[in-house]
Amino acid sequence: MATLLSSLASPTRILALEALDGEGLAAVALYLSASTSSPIVVVRDPRPFSALDPALADLASRRPVVILDRVVPNPRSEDIGAMVEATRLAFGGQAPGLVIGIGGGSALDSAKALALMLANPGDLDDYLGLRASRKPEAKGPKLALIPTTTGTGSEVTRFGVYTDRAGRKYTLASPLLQPDAALLVATAVADIPPALLAATAYDAITHALETLWNRNATPVSDSLAHAALVELLRLAGPAYEARRGGRIDGHTAALLAAACSAGVAFNVTGTAAIHALSFVLSEEWHQPHGVACAFFTDSVYSINSALPAIRAKLARVAREVARDAAHDDARSKPEDSAAKRSAAGEEAFSDDIRAAAWLGEKLVALRRSLGLASTFSDLGVGAAELPESRIASLFDKVQDDQKLKNNAVLIDAQSMRALVAAKLQ
To answer: What is the extent of the structural domain holding 381?
Structure first.
């Protein structure tokens, strides 16, 4: 895996590894916990991981380990509470020296919440939402995260996404959630199912986009997001096709690294309107996070690309992506003249408007090729279930979401309903 220059901008130590065996995992545990005997909690997806399970078994033979796999999509407060109680019961009140999270975004976010709540009083619900009654004040045990999907970025961020007992989904932001280490293990994503790769890769694409058009953007976040987005757009399609064909190649590991870089980028700014909208799709219709984010990308892209400053950022990405594609075409189609390719490229990207429009079309085409939903009918949602006006009104609650306020263009309730209604046609 390529060296991650983005790690220079992250408070999390990032290691890119081809594989991780028991000896390596034990070394990670020693270096982070500064102990060979303190207990360890592992929070993991319940599905088996052939590349990591032997390392976990080896670690458990060396020191006390409790494995928790009560992980569901969009982690729930009650499940985090159960993990806290199970950890305290298992170790007789002794604090673990390390929490390890293994899996997709839900597992990683669960591990972050567990570590936080082991050191802070009350229930996770107390810390969620605009009317939270508590704020995190203490850092929990050391935290090491190993992503097994290609896009959440959770392994390098100060954010966690949780569902409270009333069913509302919230983002919790705190530097106390920041992981100490992220281990990008190539073999851990080598056999990822194609549909999971598609959803998580597009999630990573939205992370980069929402960093570029964020009100909190900085020169550092712009640079990180630009580089990550170019790589993600180059890799997502080939990686998906390789997995659909049952092949294991280098595209997936490279996609994991690019997605991590997008995580480093949005850790600076937070996310924006796409993610705010996506939460309603997850709350109301239980859509996976990446699918929900992909759903509204074109709508929010159109709104934000109308701003000249944002359009210029997107145009720069478009030109670089197109240049890379032209270079690949030149190698695969040498019969096409360089002059012909150059003239076509200059016409397509003669100004920012055309270039940004081209990138918007590419994002739509990529979503389609990855098999991700574009309309409510694709999700099986429509007037037969609820009146269109009622569906649109469900998104009104997004107006109090800080993520929406991060968006370059402020989207009021009326504009939001129109945006949602367009997806119902």
So the answer is: 193-422
Same domain, 300 and 383: yes
Task: Kindly state the average pLDDT of the residues 189-218.
Answer: 97
Distance of CA 273 to the CA centre of its chain: 15
The answer to pTM > 0.85 is yes
How many domains, in total, are found in the chain? 2
Residue 341 scores a pLDDT above 50? no
Beta strands (DSSP E) in 179-301 are 181-185
Give exposure, 150-163, as e/b (b: 16+ Cβ within 10 Å).
Answer: bbbbbbbbbbbbbb
Tell me, yes or no, whether 219 and 367 share the same domain: yes
Instruction: Give the distance, in angstroms, between the CA of residue 18 and the centroid of all CA atoms in the same chain.
Output: 21
Q: Mark whether 396 and 263 lie in a shared domain.
A: yes
DSSP string covering 256-281, please?
Answer: HHHHHHHHHHHHHH---HHHHHHHHH
CA distance 209 to 171: 18
**What mean pLDDT comes out for the span 339-357?**
70
The end-to-end CA distance of the chain, in Å, is: 43
What are the pLDDT digits (tens) for 364-388?
999 999 999 999 999 988 656 677 8
Distance CA(36)–CA(289), nearest Å, equals: 37
Residue range 399-411, pLDDT digits in tens: 999 999 999 999 9
Q: What is the mean pLDDT of residues 299-307?
A: 98
Q: Are residues 173 and 235 in the same domain?
A: no
Say whether both 182 and 232 belong to one domain: no
Tokens of 124: 């996770």
3-state secondary structure of 363: helix
Distance (Å, whole) CA 240 – CA 131: 41
Same domain, 177 and 262: no
Q: What is the rounded distance in angstroms from the CA atom of residue 145 to the CA atom of residue 109?
A: 9
Among 47, 103, 105, residue whose Cα is nearest residue 293: 105
